[in-house]
Batch of 3 targets.
Target 1
Amino acid sequence: MGRDEREAVARGTRLHEAARSLAGDHERAVDAVRAALKPLHDEAVEQALDAIPVARLQDVTGGRLRLGAVEKSGLATVRAVLDAGPYRLRQIPGVGQRTVDQIVAAARQLAEAAGEAAAVHLDVDRPEPRTTALVAALHVLVGAGPEARRALDTAAGLVRRLDPLLAEARPAAGRIGLLLAGRERKARALEAVTGIRSLTEEAERDGTPELLAQASVDLLRGPAGDLAAWTDFELRSAEYYGVLGEIAGHTSDTAAAEGFLPDDIAERVRGLRLDDSRRRVSLRGYQAFGARFALARRRAILGDEMGLGKTIQAIAALAHLAAGGHTHFLVVCPASVLVNWTREIEARSTLPVRPLHGPDRRDAFADWGERGGVAVTTFDSLRGFPDPGGDAGGPPGGDPEGGGPDRPPAPAMLVVDEAHSVKNPQALRSQAVDRWAARCERVLFMTGTPMENRVAEFRNLVRMLDPEVADRLGDGTGLTGSVAFRRAVAPVYLRRNQEDVLTELPSLQHTDEWEELSAADEDAYREAVREGNFMAMRRAAYARPEKSAKLGRLREIVREAGENGLKVVVFSNFRDVLRVVEADLAAADGTEPRPYRPVFGPLTGAVPPARRQSLVDGFTAVTGPAVLLAQIQAAGIGLNMQAASVVIVCEPQIKPTIEHQAVARAHRMGQVRPVRVHRLLAAGGVDERMVRLLERKTRLFDAYARRSAVAEATPDAVDVSDTDLARRIVEEEQARLGVDDERTAPS
């Protein structure tokens, strides 16, 4: 006895020091952000106060102040009053000490409010030293990612548990401490040693020392190069703004962020703690609340406005359930977003994902039933699967029976994306979803379409989740306003709008929309590959519009944007693709008028410059949704499309700079609301090969540009030759598809 105790205390002390060290490393990274933020925030507050006239001080004091003499003295704004201070105010004729005290108190109150509301905008198009310093400081924390947050929470728990144990075990830390301790003190010390030993062994089994060490390494890397930090910011600005808002203490209005839910429901949702051990992405506060809502309510509709991350919230709910031992989950979505769901689940979580689509879907379905994971299927494919059976998707200790190829397990959660697609109870797809929903304990419907004025359709969706709530919904429920509507349907429905929850709007959000080509698309693509026609390969997805998978997804994005009152710019390199899009958007869909007209353009290189601006002006002048079609090189320079907040790029561009310049035309309105960029990509062909090659080239460019100011000034200097890239991709695709060359060189 003695040596073992000393070693146990030493191990506990090392673990304790590692935990405290990580907390210190994190605090230093946070302090660096605060230091970089302060001058920018102070400037934003000063600008806000400069814009507030002195007369507004009356609002704060209920109209009790006499401000005529102050205004006549030349102090026209609240900032001028604060800069003048009590002494100068007291020198103004007719202004007494009591009035001075009231004026100063009111001005400080407005200054405090301005400080809470002031948001710093990081403009990637106009970087300057102060914003660059802030982005670089944020890059450290964003780069450390959710693993660092998990490590910090673990470290805090260890410090909290080890502090009293190490204090109590102090006599056992030295060679003679236990000998000199009294019987009672010795007993407490030995008991504490036992607790330390148990705690350190548990931590070592869980890999906690490695987790803490890796987090410290990530936080100590130091700021990245300016270009690398800005590039990363552009790719995931939402995460940067999330970290910035958390450090700055900016929080959205709680009632709005919680969808104006009644207090009793909101309180139950807040009480649920999310397990993030199976998740790879951090959540904004409103996103965490949305995931908890889905879990707490069990059968619910998430109706957030497009761009707020409904997919991430659903994945967070699935990851939480998986961490609790649940094994089977099912996502049902339109075919156009199946690939996207698959990739998002893989990128954002550690959950195994299994697409149930295509000719092998029945075999994949049986495999999912046996092995579990997140199955992702389409509305049409779901109709061909047998209805679920028992509770094989439940946690350990539940009923393991009821699964199998003929009787699949009931998923622990059924997620239905674009749920407005099953609003008609007579449709076969709606009936299939209804049957599955009836057998699942947890169901999450997702739709970005506002439902306030579609009560009959909404009632059909709610009936699948909670018939009692559906029966309470009258046809006039939505007429009382969106907030009242949300309160009426609070037991099943959560919707937040961007202006409600994003106190610091992400300036840019990129989404790669991966689509599976239809059979007609595949035929057109194979023909282009056989001919060795690179340009035809790039636009083959639009060659047969009536069966085009990309065009279907484009239509969905434009429809949802129109439903939310947003303007859309559609870019393509090809004039004939824009003509196809124009014809499709102008056509009636056979059931109801489309909400996203008028359509402006196409704006192409053949359109004179004056006419181009006229098209943009007309697009901007429209009140409500509209669509502008533009050839990407013609619209990429010289035109500002600030009215647009949704950008669709029909195919990947050979030079990323072309796409960046075009997006920047709309990106300028990021100061008001985020610009969302959807790049339409086809899986398995030229698009995937282009993306992979261009990503590799971008990494090489970043490494090169950090060593060369000239390269930063001229990014096209390292662009891969268009001809070389085209030839390489054509040859690879001909080999993959086993077709013969019909041309000696790609077109």
Target 2
Amino acid sequence: MTGREERQRGRRRNRGDGTTKPVLEQMPWRQPTYQDPPIEPLDAEGVEKIHLTAMRILEEIGIDFLNEEAKDVLKKAGVDVDPDSDRVRMDRDFVMERVRRAPEQFTITPRNPERSIVWGGRHTTFGNVSSPPNVTDLDHGRRTGTREDFRALLKLSHAFNCIHFVGGYPVEPIDIHPSVRHLDAILDKLVLTDKVIHAYCLGTERVEDAMEMVRIAAGLTHEEFDARPRMFTNINSSSPLKHDWPMLDGAMRMARRGQPVLVTPFTLSGAMAPVTLAGAIAQQTAEALAAIALLQEINPGVPVGYGAFTSNVDMKTGAPAFGTPEFMRATQMSGQMARFYGLPFRSTGANAANFPDGQAVWESMNSLFGATTAHANVIYHAAGWLEGGLLASMEKFVMDCEVLQQIAYYHQPVPVDDDSLAFAAIAEVGPNGHFFGAAHTMERYRTAYYAPFLSDWSNFETWMEHGGRTVHERANTLWKKIVAAYEPPPMDEAIREELEAFVARRKEEGGAPTDF
């Protein structure tokens, strides 16, 4: 038996009839598009008032830019840069002229062009959980993330067709030293997946190394890499009213090479932003547009996105809350602002639960409801997020993918034609029959409805006969089967050798500087 045949045997189980069945039966890879109009809590006057308040914030209060290069760029463009502080005040005409340079829609092409995705318009995409320091599963409990856990989550991210891009690290591989962690992590992302990937703006070396590795993995020249989007980054403002050095440095480096930047203020209403939603969205908008204007000044027309992470806090404890009614409304309002500026919109699937229980499900569903009804084009943390972003869960990843697949199925066109109207079938059955055995039903029953891979629709007696297993237990079994049966996407051996040689060289050079 060849190595490939052994992998195929591990990936499939025998059906007993001479054929095999996939470990995971799922919908094919595709990018969903919204079929319904967005929900818009604000009327035109409300949108205009938030816009005007954001402009006043930029003009009268200003934003701190903790990056000398960014301030130099803005000063040369005629922006009011305070010589005695980091404060920058932007005229609304300057801001809006730069914002209008940004494309409303663009395509990102990874090393496998078949995994290209479109951001903007009615298109949406889902990404995996990103950046938690801890990981959990039912077998080993909550623990610090390792490279093994990191790789397992990457394999899940690759296996599920409803995951369209790989965000930040699905869990921090804490067992790799920070100076070289990005090299091993990005190597794993590029080898174990062939989807669009994210790079962190956490210092010059990390961003430059990431861009070079993506270029190598796709077999591109520098000119080909710079010519179109191949990867992306996301930066967060340090709310209130501040953009820090590493985020700006990385964003500017990406922008110069034509790579997309999502600007997502982390504005918790009641803590880092006003307690009112309108005030929080106005501040969020000012912070986002300030960085977007900078990037458009650096490279006019570079793809960017307007991001939203406005939620509220528990006013009793100060703890962040997600998936709340305020979170949903803030997301929908943010979607309106993104469309007002003609920018692709990034949102988040989030919850504050500590276990993949009912609270985790309803808060995640609320977050996804807010994101999808707002027509978010980019939905971060859509699978696997727990504990307010401090924990990645293997079981929650699988549970979330069931939900994401159902959302994608929901956003399919509903045919209305002679065949689907079924007049002949209705006439055949008449008032005294049923449709179970009708020819119209028999021709379509296998594909008529959504088929879940995780939900159990059996009655109580059948469920008990099969062990009475909860959804967490079923998810636990499934994620382990998927990881065990995983097969990496193809990569040219010469390209892999070049990637590994680059990583080895950069490690010898010390990687990225750290404090220890």
Target 3
Amino acid sequence: MFALWYLTFAVDEIRKRLAWLFSSNKPAAQKALDNKPATPAPAAAPAPAPAPTVKPSPAAAPAKPSSPAPSPKPVAATVAEPPKPVTPPKPAVVQPAPTPAPAPVVAPTVVPKPTPAAPSSPAAPNTPTAPSTPPKAADSAKMPIPLPKSLTEANTNGNDNSTNGNAALNDVSLDKKLFDAKLPASKVPKVDQEQLKDASKDFIHGEANAFVQSIKEAQQAGYRKQDTMVDAAVLAKLEEGYAKLAASDSKSLLKKYLTKEVFDNLKNKVTPTFKSTLLDVIQSGLENHDSGVGIYAPDAEAYTVFADLFDPIIEDYHGGFKKTDKHPASDFGDVNSFGNVDPTNEYVISTRVRCGRSMQGYPFNPCLTEAQYKEMEEKVSSTLSSLEGELKGKFYPLTGMEKAVQQQLIDDHFLFKEGDRFLQAANACRFWPTGRGIYHNDNKRFLVWCNEEDHLRIISMQQGGDLGEIYRRLVTAVNEIEKRIPFSHDDRLGFLTFCPTNLGTTIRASVHIKVPKLASNKAKLEEVAAKYNLQVRGTRGEHTEAEGGVYDISNKRRMGLTEYQAVKEMYDGITELIKLEKSL
């Protein structure tokens, strides 16, 4: 399309230049014609009055195709010599109609204002005739530039019998000749004007889209560059911490999977929204080489940005949940299918089932502002205060809590406490105690932690081993809270939490169990527990020691299975441990 437009433009320019050349030689050619006898050559411009005997050639009639038709009004009265044998050419009467290009040819002696009283003036008519009146052979010698040879019909360099090849112009317009000189007639495409218009619109639209796309790509490149810019001080801490971890005897999953290649690939990355770095993810494990896992997700996007580290750790901890796996939909199953794991109360001291939840629309602890902590506490307090029945209770904010009340709740294993070095190293204890609190029902069998490790820890617990009753209470509470507070959920990872060990179902069903015979050989205890995907911890939970031979044993897997299946693993495992303890 562009080539066609350019060709048309070039042809138009050539036509204008030829017209100008013809016009500039017209006075000389006119003088030559005045000094020659009349010949039957093709008619030129109307002859002046002193040559009344010259008859226009019949072939000269179409010599002015591009000139506007003159007025048909008779003008014989304005001719100086009326008794002419032929109709004299129209005098130079200026018509009101606009004169098209090329410019009118005017002899040097023409008076600017034509009058009918000057018939003897040699002035040519004001209508443009130069393009339609080719010069005679005699005049061609006076022209500085000959016509192109492509304008001759016989292609004889202007030396044929048609007066320099210009006779062809009598039959075909100059525009077509000029066009055919550049593009053979056989190859001239037939252009559909509507199609050409549509093509023009498409071209402009395409160019505009390409320009907009280039701007977007430049912006995205800028964002990517910004998202991979990590402060030099952060990089220095990462390099130092990684060197110390690599040289340590740590057994953490962090050390196991943070290879040099993975470290170099992730150290310059940050999450898009909260700009969390690799240091935010691994700083707890870098400071605490005795960590079992060693990493936390400062925000939900970290699970994607730092997937090269999270995915293998998740697969290892959750029993083979691969990066290509998808966590199943939530399913609490038949809540009446579980019974009491220790009807005689010989081994199980207490049973607890809990789950973690993150409130939709908020980041995890390291990225929360003080205002967000206060806002979340208000939402949780008002929501829990509206619960009825067995779940009815009271919310206790940590801010302003009396020391005696706080200590009693800790001793009852209800209240979490500040000072966990693993969470502090992960930057999860900011603005303490703002936004933190605890809720429990009247009989203290149902409680909720607000902003300890996760936004919410929903817990159902009681003395003894009646897992069925405890599980039913938890399921009822979770469903009631979710009606009032939406939870963060991912299609692949399930419910999202601060620690990757709690992803998926987030369910942790545990017992405080006293098995002195198995405890005497802790390696044997852990071997049997691992067979049923159980985790053995101290009496007061993770990172604590057993007190009086009492261990906290729970299901380990939380991903790749439903809530019901997770609880059943614990139920089956504890039942088997009690049988083994009895047999020893």
